[in-house]
Amino acid sequence: MVARLAVFDIDNTLLARNKQLLRSTVTSIQKLKQQKINVAIATGRNLRLARPIIKALDLQDFILCNGSAAFANKQQVHQQTLSSANVAALVAAADEHHVDMIFESLDGLHAHTKPSQATRQVLHDFRAPLPDYAPDYYRSHPIYQAMMFYQPDMDAKLPHADEFSFVRFAQNGVDVIPRVGSKAEGVAKLAAKLHVDAKDIVAFGDNDNDREMLRSAGIGIAMGNAEPAIQACANLTTTDCDHDGIQNGLKAIGWI
After folding, report:
1. Pairing status of strand 109-111 against strand 145-149
2. I need a labelling partner for 90 at 20 to 30 A (CA). Which of 77, 83, 195, 237 fits?
3. What is the mean pLDDT of the chain?
4. The pTM is what?
């Protein structure tokens, strides 16, 4: 039997806009497992934030922090963190321009600044807990990614080290991740461990941080709620996350 892998973004992909799993999505995941198809999430969330979905769907494989960490059978098989020197330079610029910054470890969020109301709203929208206040956390811990909270016109005022990618996930929110640490990279590391060829991977996503994953998978499926530019990265577009997008996409390719 050829090994296959189905990979899903979480927010507005696996989860509907109300942050709940549709019954059709849960049933579809169960059908994949019954066929011995590997099922994984690929998310910008860290392990703490992804754990409710991992538990709800009983997953063994997961890609976290936008691809900077990958786990196969719940064992870490990939790690890519941000360099301390470039993080320090970015912190200095954020401080100068009064930009909120939060660091992500595998198990937590650590705020360099006291979150403003605008930052709190972004965290609330994504059902993220308020981080602990640890302004010097980045000095002595590995950082998988950072979140910065600013409008697009601030981009030009911040240093963009070659090793970093800045990926906007909200009007007022940006993920800072290793340039080589995209979800696609995490998927590739997981697939290698599971002995799955790229052509036998299907990936579902809806946002900017899913572009590379949708392009590199054997079959990339964009959600109907994705912007046209994201849909253009995929092989096909399914219905939206509120209207059985996972089930309909898997049916369209004959995986369920």
Report:
1. unpaired
2. 77
3. 95
4. 0.83
